[in-house]
Amino acid sequence: MKNKETLILHDYFDNFGGGERLVNILGDELNSNIVTGFINSQYKHLLNNNIINLNIFFKSNRYLKILFLFFRFYFFKINHCPKNVIFSGCYSVFSIRRFKSSRKILYHHTLPKFAYYNESKPYSKSILFGYFINFMRIIFKKIYEKSLLHTDIIFCNSHFTKNELLNNINIKHKKIYVIYPPVDLNVFNIKNTSYGNYFVVNSRHECDKKIDLIIKSFNSLSYKLFITGSGSKTAKLKILAKNNSNIVFLGTLNETEYIKILKNCRATILLSENEDFGMALAESLACGKMVFCLKSGGFVEYLQEGKNCVFLNKNDIINNLIDNINFNFEKLEGARDCCYKTALKFSKKNFINAFRDHLIYH
């Protein structure tokens, strides 16, 4: 029987990235049920068995997905109010009004990009559809901000995320704490590590991750590049890499395979800009592997040039990545202990203890 005192609501499991790993760990450690909008069957085997799937429709269409997630959580029905309810993500918090007698805790990963960040790409050739999207954004922001006002505690995954939240929403009076996401150091560690001739990309295949620039760089390098995971851009990325046998798409790996790949690579590469925290990056550090990345977002809170990372010039990523990989190739092994020491602050024990402390004693 799962813990009825605490319930976790998480937007959806479309991938198995940092946010999904965090919720999976939290559900296990608190022995709580997790309610979610939908689950990508491709990742179901990676999840624990305490998940209740609301199974919304139209998951493949971005705007319909937003609309259905909004309504499914806003009109969410419960049989009883648990003592604590933890919201994870942008949509789950819309159900907050249903939990009047519960202690309401939000783990804030990022601001909803749909509502708070401008996009230059047009929505559609239809002017009417464009007006509809703008109307959706206005309503979404209004109810989202009202929902946040009903939280008792907000946890953020980095100081960068906390500042983004405070700069965009007037909730300065709220109790807001920074608790870095957890890395399971029992499995992500420097035991039995080696340093092969390949590099790893371990992020979602989306535009903001700039994997296309990494592929273009490796088309001029002699080293191998292993790309894990998937996303909406996977097919286009494979076309970009089709003439380079050194670039290998590994797809979705189970945890054992994923850790083996990390422990035996030379380093990892993550080019997303203004990343809120970067769980994949933290897992790389835990395995003693330096990271090639941009100097932005939550990264700057725990990365130091030359010690656990190589910061790249965002204005000339391809050439800068090529030059830095060639220059640093033999030096990457020497950073093993420093990388692992950095990851210690993200231990699962620290994360769960911080959560339990606020859950039980405050």
Descriptive overview:
The chain is α/β, with parallel strands linked by helices. The protein folds into two domains: 3-182 and 347-361, Rossmann fold (3-Layer(aba) Sandwich), CATH 3.40.50.2000; 198-344, 3-Layer(aba) Sandwich (Rossmann fold). It is 35% helix and 17% strand. The strands form two sheets. It has a seven-stranded parallel beta sheet. The chain has a six-stranded parallel beta sheet with strand order 10-9-8-11-12-13, with helices on both faces. Helix 6 packs across helix 10 (317-328) and helix 9 crosses helix 11 (336-343).
What order do the helices and strands follow? EHEEHEEHHEHEEHEHEHEHEEHHH
Q: What is the number of helices? A: 12
Radius of gyration of CA atoms, rounded to a whole number: 21 Å
- Oligomeric composition of the shown chains: single chain
Based on secondary structure, the structural category is alpha/beta
> Could you say what the CATH architecture of the largest domain is?
3-Layer(aba) Sandwich
Helix content: 25-40%
The CATH superfamily of the largest domain bears the name Glycogen Phosphorylase B
How much of the sequence lies in strands comes to 15-25%
N→C terminal distance: 26 Å
CATH class of the largest domain: Alpha Beta
Ranges with pLDDT <50 over ≥5 residues? Answer: none
* Average residue pLDDT: 90
